[in-house]
Specification:
It comes from Enorma phocaeensis. Its EC number is 3.1.21.-. InterPro entries: Restrct_endonuc_typeI_TRD, Restrct_endonuc_typeI_TRD_sf, Type-I_RS_S_subunit. This is Restriction endonuclease subunit S. Keywords: DNA-binding, Endonuclease, Hydrolase, Nuclease, Restriction system. Helix 3 packs antiparallel against helix 7. The protein folds into 2 domains: 125 residues, Alpha-Beta Complex (Adenine-n6-DNA-methyltransferase TaqI, Chain A, domain 2); 225 residues, Adenine-n6-DNA-methyltransferase TaqI, Chain A, domain 2, CATH 3.90.220. The chain contains 7 helices and 24 strands. The strands form 8 sheets. The chain has a 4-stranded antiparallel beta sheet with strand order 2-8-5-6. A 4-stranded antiparallel beta sheet has the order 13-21-17-19. It has a 4-stranded mixed beta sheet with strand order 15-14-20-16, with no helix packed on it. It is of the alpha+beta class and 400 residues long. The protein is elongated, with a radius of gyration of 25 Å. Helix content is 29%, strand content 24%.
């Protein structure tokens, strides 16, 4: 392989300012250092584009085929110098992952100078056909990972729609399987909820149904490599209230039993670093990727009586916007928000008969199991990709 300066393979350019107040309704993705972060009516780039973070999240590289607007926190490839754009994206990703500035991890670097990047000496496959062969293998893995993520999102959205149809619109299967409310099912007024609910349902608070265990208090000295015990932390939950497997930590100790969680158990975020309290109070289900997990003090594990409430009904009730609007009012702090778990004692829900909850759970369980299976498959694919990527780009592996 050739060794050349990065600037001979690609020319990087700084992104463009676009304050929120100046954005207009449209379908052009606005790309920041962490990925798509909004939309606009005007595009700065068209065709195949490669974008990476200049400030904020350093090291992630985004390939986007189509119109977009790269923000000023990013660098984008202005000139590919005749190279395959996907190859350029993979090459840039490998170089940024290996980059260390003044001994500091790249994720904490305050900024990246494109002129510094242009001067980096990198391995280079000059033959365009060989570039495309390399990217075809990596792109196939990336496409499967993306499809699995899409499947997970669609399954979660379907679960949300079913919950809304059954327990907000009250069109759960009634007699003879007909929609309850639409077919004239009886509704009664609830003074506690200030709305109608189906006859025979009860009202209670979440605090009546659950108890909590707090997680493990760890220090940086407890963190270790992948051979340690897996630990779910606040970073494991994203702003869409989904589990982030790539943020799983590992620790060199085994916490007490109450500070550990088993697959299928439910955790809620008790801390939040987002400005708008987007994560606090959010529930996630512990995945089946490991036999047992530790979980940090930023989370709490829920225990509930299955004779009164079923897991998936409770899980979906804690994923509604109504619930989140309520619970985030019990979070306080300046830079870090801390949730007062007493807020659960004030959130009232309608509680359907246990038989209907069981019917709902039996409907959701295979869907969420399939989402968990796709998540596990992605972990294997990501591990394979992360091993292949530098080996192919550095020429340690070749493809016939």
């Amino acid at each position: 392989m050739d060794k050349v300066r990065l600037g001979t393979v690609m020319t990087l350019h700084r992104g463009y300012d676009l304050p929120n107040a100046q954005r207009k309704s449209g379908d052009v993705p606005v790309i920041s250092s962490s990925g798509i972060s909004g939309s606009h009516s005007v595009a700065k780039l068209v065709g195949e584009n490669v974008i990476t973070g200049r400030y904020g999240t350093i090291g992630e590289v985004f390939y986007h085929n189509g119109p977009c607007w790269p923000l000023n926190t990013t660098l984008f490839v202005e000139d590919f110098h005749g190279n395959d754009p996907k190859y350029v994206a993979y090459l840039l990703e490998v170089m940024l992952n290996a980059l260390q500035i003044d001994g500091t991890d790249k994720s904490t670097v305050p900024g990246v100078d494109r002129n510094v990047l242009h001067d980096l000496v990198v391995p280079y496959i000059s033959d365009l056909a060989s570039q495309k062969t390399t990217t075809r293998v990596l792109s196939a893995i990336d496409a499967k990972i993306a499809n699995n993520k899409k499947l997970i999102a669609e399954l979660e959205e379907t679960a949300r729609l079913i919950y809304d149809y059954w327990f907000t619109q009250f069109d759960f299967p009634g007699e003879n399987g007909r929609p309850y409310r639409s077919s004239g099912g009886k509704l009664i007024w609830s003074d506690e909820l200030k709305r109608e609910i189906p006859a025979g349902w009860h009202v209670c608070t979440i605090g009546d149904l659950v108890t909590f265990d707090r997680g493990f208090s760890y220090s940086s000295a407890n963190l270790c490599g992948d051979e340690g015990m897996p630990m779910i932390s606040l970073a494991s939950i994203d702003r869409q209230h989904r589990y982030r497997p790539e943020e799983l930590k590992h620790i060199n100790v085994v916490p007490d039993a109450e500070e550990c969680a088993l697959p299928g158990e439910m955790l809620v975020a008790c801390t939040d670093l987002t400005r708008l309290a987007e994560i606090v109070g959010c529930p996630i289900l512990v995945p089946k990727t490991h036999e047992r997990f530790a979980y940090s003090m930023d989370l709490a594990k829920l225990h509930f009586d299955r004779k009164r409430v079923q897991k998936y009904y409770l899980y979906m009730a804690l994923r509604t916007s109504t619930y989140h609007h309520h619970i985030k009012q019990f979070a306080s702090g300046t830079n870090v928000l801390h949730l007062d778990l007493a807020g659960f004692n004030w959130y009232k829900i309608s509680l359907p008969p246990i038989g209907l909850q069981m019917e709902f759970d039996s409907l959701l369980e295979p869907m969420l199991e399939l989402a968990d299976e796709a998540l596990r498959e992605n972990l294997g694919l990501i591990k394979q990709r992360n091993w292949l990527l530098p080996m192919l780009i550095n020429g340690q592996l070749t493809i016939n």
